[in-house]
Amino acid sequence: MLRRLVLLLLWHLTTGYLGAFAQNTPKYSNEFLNIGVNARAMALSNAQTATVADVSAGYWNPAGLVHSTYHYEGTLTHAEYFAGIAQYDYMGFSTNIDSSSRLAVSLIRFGVDDIPDTRFLYDANGAINYNNIRYFSASDYAFLLSYAKRTALEGLSWGSNFKIIYRQAGDFATAWGFGLDMGMQYRRGSWFLGAMARDITGTYTTWSHNVTLLYNVYAQTGNKIPKNSVEITLPRLHIGIARQFRWKQFGILPQVELPLTFDGMRNTLIRSASVSIDPSMGIELDYQRMAYLRFGAGNLQQIKDFDGSRSWSYQINFGAGFRFKSFTIDYALTDLGDNAEGLYSHVFSLKVGFNK
């Protein structure tokens, strides 16, 4: 039965009708949900599908929730982007339902606050009055409800997410969306396998614009008045594989991630008109499962220079973690060496677990 479901899902993702949809849907719909959560994951270049085994599995692969070693587990992550202009926050909580199933809730926010609204900068007399400047926020929110369960086959688990998306640009525009994810993990000995299908039915986000607030300004500047619309986020598939090695008190966990997108050709290492693959890899070193060092590489893109030549850019990430009893703190520095086009960011995570 499980094999039939997996085959049906793969057929659903790769058949031609997705390619037809891709011609009319944006590639980067709800892109804030692809940033990732948890400093450990970001240090490993988001190679998590096969190995995630804590509360953050509610985002990466809900099937991994059942491998948590605590009855209750909570986590917080904070990061800043674009020199602190954008704030990214994540919180998650998970708990056992019974001996074979687990439940988790997650909340993600990505926002830019205190954006000046200069529509009323000039007063009725045509003079500039800075006291008339107002401020608003442009924020994206996602709420995830996750469920995971072990199967009768030893080492195999599955999980699913139901997500609600809310996006807001001050009082000017709002959007609501709903989506569904499904994942599986299989562990055998030192090997880890995982697959995660995001937005398996397509995630539909409906935008509503407050035209009354924008009409006068748009008319004066010659901009097109926005219309209410629906964005469709097409499915994507993540496949991961990893293997654990241990030598006495030391351990090493290399892992590879293959994210597949089906929304047309992207600037990735492997690409075609229907499928693009952006591989990444990470390696985690540990001492007594208490102190950790992490490295990751990914985000390979071909950049065209002004002289017409092309070169490859890539992103190297670094991280560290420390666990003391039930507390874990993780840190990641993304884009080590500034090799990618984006700026580097510092990411911090705190995790705590406890039993009854």
Describe this structure as you would to a colleague.
With 356 residues, this protein is mainly beta. It has a single domain (2-354), classed as Porin (Beta Barrel). Helix content is 11%, strand content 53%. It has helices spanning 2-14, 16-22, 39-43, 57-60, 211-221, and strands at 72-81, 86-98, 101-117, 134-150, 156-169, 173-188, 191-198, 203-209, 229-233, 236-243, 245-247, 250-261, 270-271, 276-277, 280-287, 291-304, 310-324, 327-334, 345-354. The chain has a 14-stranded antiparallel β-barrel. The protein is globular, with a radius of gyration of 22 Å. Residues 1-22 form the signal peptide. This is PorV/PorQ family protein.
Topology diagram in text:
Elements: H1 2-14, H2 16-22, H3 39-43, H4 57-60, E1 72-81, E2 86-98, E3 101-117, E4 134-150, E5 156-169, E6 173-188, E7 191-198, E8 203-209, H5 211-221, E9 229-233, E10 236-243, E11 245-247, E12 250-261, E13 270-271, E14 276-277, E15 280-287, E16 291-304, E17 310-324, E18 327-334, E19 345-354
Antiparallel strand pairs: 1-2, 1-19, 2-3, 3-4, 4-5, 5-6, 6-7, 6-8, 7-10, 8-9, 10-12, 11-12, 12-14, 12-15, 13-14, 15-16, 16-17, 17-18, 18-19
